[in-house]
Amino acid sequence: MINTYSLDQRLYHIGLQLSGVTKIRPNSWIDIETTLHEATLDVDSDSRIFSLLCSWVIIHGDYVIIEKLMKLQKNNFSPWLVALAVFASNHGFHQWKRLIKKLRLDIALVDVELALSAISIKGEEPNFRKYGFLIPKGSIRARSSDALSTQQLIKKNIQYRNRLLYGASWRSDIISAIQIGLKTPYIIAKTLGCSYEPAHRIFKEYLLASSV
After folding, report:
1. Per-domain residue ranges of the chain
2. In which band, very low, low, confident or very high, does the pLDDT at 149 lie, cut at 50, 70 and 90?
């Protein structure tokens, strides 16, 4: 079942520890990359979101499909997704480097002048300035307590669990879509944003394997 949920509900479903969030219905499709991308678009209005996303990346950064994020960026560019990629790269998730590009103008989590003033006193987080981000040292509060562990999230999110089983790939997501009850390759392709051919092929393979 496909439903529209608030950003907080979707972030909760992919593993962020948020209080007072109503749970989603079973078998709803809440896409990891779409949720991350949409959350970065909200950073300008609420800078705290960025630290939460960084907390998520530290634990789960290996289990994203970078190609999906690149496609979302092409359709609706989010500068703070680039910053999240810089943070991920700083923490050893090198596949995220494909999302990094230099901005035309410098931006900050707060006012640019305030950020420059704080940087002059505290220093700055490494590698952000060269891509156009003014991030004073200590302003990213990434905490493991803000995100579920891998063991916790695999019990809660079928898309995430299948990425551990099959790798972070379109195949994994197509299998997840089948398992939550999407009935046809056409619906799967439309929901996931993938092309019809892999959805149709993997759908047939999954049904064949399940019949044995």
Report:
1. 7-146, 150-210
2. very high
